[in-house]
Amino acid sequence: xxxxxxxxxxxxxxxxxxxxxxxxxxxxxxxxxxxxxxxxxxxxxxxxxxxxxxxxxxxxxxxxxxxxxxxxxxxxxxxxxxxxxxxxxxxxxxxxxxxxxxxxxxxxxxxxxx
Length: 114
Description:
Number of strands: 3
Radius of gyration: 21 Å
Number of domains: 1
Strand order of the largest sheet: 1-3-2
CATH class: Mainly Alpha
Oligomer: single chain
């Protein structure tokens, strides 16, 4: 793989609620914990904690605005995550192709014996 894997980044993305938060921010643009919690089956406090995790790994940026904090996707860090996912996918595609080749070779050798 060409891109180094960032375990903290993937740990953050590994949570389904955080992935849904990212989906909502990607689809609707910047949002607050309150607005995002309206779209999720968790409390505003839980959303705020998830946003804090995403902020720590750089996937979102927080901007205070009065009593609210607005969160937006960090496009560069998100692109980095996508590049890592693509690299992992390519690696696994190559591994699976090799497994298929080995399985076909075993099958062909078995058929030749019969």
